[in-house]
């Protein structure tokens, strides 16, 4: 059992939980994730470890409440317990040891970029971060990333920082040259746009993929992704991959496969599911 020691709302549907998990806090590396299992019959939720503190034995999880299970997770409060936190899972981030890295975070993906920027800074790499949100209230982890280097904030509506997508700011930074590597995490269209931008410039680009995961052990095939002609499993081969090789169309398709089921599951949890109402009426 893992006690929740702190809770913070970061944006309208994004919550930070600091969870007691001392072994994971001690050994986790940038890019790795955990699978959270709220209770016995609950869905398993993969979450990147956004930060950790080995002294307090806590790991930081950042959750976007989009479905039934993530809504249940963010409904927990300080002092509540999570049944299982399995990890750390996945390969640590491929780091450069010197030079200049550009870290790009879109929306909740900014929390995933945070440990990468942290790890790069610890190695002495110059870090520039470009982070974005729909508007000011959706921008997260700005202060945390400022510890590691310059941060450029973008909002789609111009309500904070510069107006536009993260790719607009990234394009200008890349045009100035001297960026050895780009790390990009966020919505699939964003990661695809970043990869398209850097491909022509020949700048190595690492993206963190978030396909549907079930077991997290490479057995179920749920997290299958295609890289060129190769098939990989994000849970055991990733979750970070060469962005220039990822088949983003397939990833987007596979991510939308269960959308209808997810909507139905939310409706049932809210008591607005038509099938459930009919069953109750017939009972
Ligand atoms: P969002 O849709 O609000 O977009 C955030 C920012 O990304 C925008 O402000 C913009 O700067 C940029 N962006 C979006 N579309 C773009 C495009 N077509 N071209 C260039 N830039 C674009 O983000 P959100 O609602 O926070 O959603 C985050 C997404 O990230 C979710 O779909 C979630 O599944 C995914 N995610 C991925 C990971 C991962 O490891 N890859 C982790 C967490 C979340
Ligand atoms: Fe099952 Fe990756 S989650 S193979």
Please explain how this structure is put together.
The protein is an alpha/beta fold and 283 residues long. It folds into 2 domains: 2-89, Beta Barrel (Elongation Factor Tu (Ef-tu), domain 3); 100-211, Rossmann fold, CATH 3.40.50. Helix content is 31%, strand content 33%. The protein is built from 10 helices and 16 strands. The chain has helices at residues 22-27, 68-74, 110-122, 142-146, 166-175, 188-201, 234-237, 248-256, 259-269, 274-282; strands at residues 2-11, 14-20, 33-37, 44-53, 58-64, 81-82, 84-89, 100-106, 126-133, 149-155, 162-163, 181-185, 204-208, 224-227, 230-233, 240-242. It has a 7-stranded antiparallel β-sheet. α4 links the parallel β9 (126-133) and β10. α5 (166-175) packs parallel to α6 (188-201). It is globular.
In short:
This protein has 283 residues and is α/β, with parallel strands linked by helices.
Q: What distinguishing features does this structure have?
A:
seven-stranded antiparallel sheet, binds nicotinamide-adenine-dinucleotide, 2 domains, 10 helices, 16 strands, alpha/beta, Elongation Factor Tu (Ef-tu), domain 3, single chain, 283 residues, globular, Rossmann fold, binds FE2/S2 (inorganic) cluster, seven-stranded mixed sheet
Q: Which oligomeric form is depicted?
A: single chain
CATH architecture of the largest domain: 3-Layer(aba) Sandwich
Q: What is the structural class?
A: alpha/beta
Strand content range: 25-35%
What's the pLDDT, averaged over the residues? 92
Count of alpha and pi helical runs: 10
Domains, number: 2
Order of helices and strands: EEHEEEHEEEHEHEEHEHEEEHEHHH
CATH topology of the largest domain: Rossmann fold
The number of strands is 16
Low-confidence stretches: none
Assigned CATH class of the largest domain: Alpha Beta
Integer-rounded radius of gyration: 19 Å
Q: Please state how the strands of the largest beta sheet are arranged side by side.
A: 6-1-2-5-4-3-7
The portion of residues assigned to helices is 25-40%
Largest sheet: 7 strands, antiparallel
Our measurement of the CA-to-CA distance between the termini, rounded to an integer number of angstroms, reads 37 Å
Q: Which kinds of small molecule does this entry bind, naming each only once? A: nicotinamide-adenine-dinucleotide, FE2/S2 (inorganic) cluster
Outline: globular
CATH superfamily caption of the largest domain: Nucleotide-binding domain of ferredoxin-NADP reductase (FNR) module
């Amino acid at each position: 059992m893992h006690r929740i020691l702190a809770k913070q709302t970061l944006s309208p549907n994004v919550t930070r939980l600091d969870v007691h998990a001392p072994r994971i806090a001690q050994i986790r590396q940038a890019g790795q994730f955990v699978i959270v299992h709220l209770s016995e019959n609950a869905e398993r939720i993969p979450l990147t470890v956004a930060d950790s503190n080995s002294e307090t034995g806590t790991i930081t999880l950042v959750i976007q409440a989009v479905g039934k299970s993530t809504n249940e997770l963010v409904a927990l409060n300080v002092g509540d317990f999570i049944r299982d936190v399995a990890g750390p899972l996945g390969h640590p981030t491929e780091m450069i040891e010197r030079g200049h890295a550009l870290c790009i975070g879109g929306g909740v993906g900014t929390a995933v970029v945070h440990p990468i920027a942290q790890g790069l800074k610890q190695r002495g790499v110059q870090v520039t971060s470009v982070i974005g949100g729909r508007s000011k209230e959706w921008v997260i982890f700005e202060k945390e990333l400022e510890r590691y280097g310059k941060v450029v904030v973008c909002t789609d509506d111009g309500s904070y920082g510069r107006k536009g997508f993260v790719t607009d700011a990234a394009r200008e930074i890349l045009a100035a040259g001297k960026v050895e590597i780009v790390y990009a995490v966020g919505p699939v269209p964003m990661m695809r746009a970043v990869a398209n931008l850097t491909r022509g410039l020949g700048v190595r680009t690492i993206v963190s993929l978030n396909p549907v995961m079930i077991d997290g052990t490479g057995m179920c095939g749920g997290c299958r992704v295609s890289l060129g002609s190769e098939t990989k499993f994000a849970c055991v081969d990733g979750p970070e991959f060469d962005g220039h090789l990822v088949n983003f169309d397939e990833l987007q398709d596979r991510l939308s496969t269960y959308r209808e089921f997810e909507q139905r599951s939310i409706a049932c949890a809210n008591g607005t599911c038509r099938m459930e109402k009919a069953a109750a009426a017939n009972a």
